[in-house]
Structures are given as structure tokens and as C-alpha cells.
Amino acid sequence: MSKPRIAVIISSTREARFADKPAAWLMDQVGKRDDMDFELLDLRDFDLPFFDEAASNQWAPSEDSKAVKWQETLAGFDGFLFLVAEYNHSITGALKNALDQAYKEWNRKPAAAMGYGGVGAARAIEHLRNIAVELQMVPLRNAVHLGGGEFMKVSPLGQDGEMSEVTEVLKPSLDAMLDELVWWADATMAARAKSA
Predict the structure, then answer these.
(1) pLDDT of residue 105 exceeding 90
(2) Would you call 141 exposed, middle or buried from its count of C-beta atoms within 10 A (0-12, 13-18, 19+)?
(3) Which of 118, 108, 180 is nearest to 143 (CA)?
(4) CB atoms within 10 A of CB 70
(5) What pLDDT digit, counting tens, does each position of 34-67 carry?
């Protein structure tokens, strides 16, 4: 069986977003793994319209070419790692829209998350897990939370330091999440192959 392909999805599309710094750190860290292949997907690059289809693509093919391109991109992955910003105790509108623009491409694949903000995007990640269940994904127990004092060390709201300053704190939760992610990616890949 081939190595799982995991999409790392940046959920914020704001011009002033903080996401680029933790995304670069995350891609550096996951690049050290030899049991999964990772690719960065930036929602800015997909220019998705607001969901306006007759139904989910589970029930009717999507008509918008940008939505179809997004679905085709997602179909090639075996799992997802969401980089989550927390807006008002939830995920970004851009991420919710991106989740809604596909359905069957999410099914039976694991969903991991790294969040950032005052409480490490804990509330947004919980909301994401609920959405993932409805999309028939496998939301992981473990997540990475860049919050509180560690967030203030590296964010423009605080000292705007380097992510290397918080690696020691984040690495144990990252390793636990990635170990769980590869287990579920391998398991769901095998199960999907068996039922294909």
C-alpha cells in the first residue's frame, strides 16, 4: 500500500492573516515524517464562490467549475490536516464554505487539526470535529493548539517571534496527532480499497 497523501489546508484567506507563519512551521515539521506525504492547500488559491448548488455533490453534480476543481483536488488525498483560525468561537467562513463545496471527497478519511489563537482555536476545532462527523470523516482526538502565552510569543499581537520558540511546547502534541493521523489514514485507505 502506498503512503497516505495528506492535504494541509490553510483555513484563513484574510490579507492580514497569521496563518502563513504556523503553516510554514507545520510543513517543516511534517516534512520530517517518512510515513505520509503532505501537500499544502491554501484556500486563497481556489477562489471558491459561496455554496450555491442545487444540492451537495453527493446527490447532484456541482455546476460551478471552481467547486468541481476543488472536489477533484480533494479526491486525491487520503486525509486532511486543517490549520484552523478561530473566528468568534468557530471556524472561518472560508473553511465552512470549502467544507460545504464537497461531500463524497471528504468521506471515510481522517481529519486532523492545528489551531491558533487565544485558546489555541479549541472551540473552532471542536466545531470542525462536529462538521467532520456529518461529512463522514474521522475526526482525530489529538490536535495541536497554539494558544495563550505561546501564541503571544509568535503572533503580531504579541512579540512576533519565530515559531522555533514554541516548538518544544508544541512538538509532543504534534507527534501524537501525526501518529494518530497515519494510523487512521492507513486504516481508512485499506477499508476504502476493500469496499471499492
Answers:
(1) yes
(2) exposed
(3) 180
(4) 22
(5) 999 999 999 999 999 999 999 999 999 999 999 9
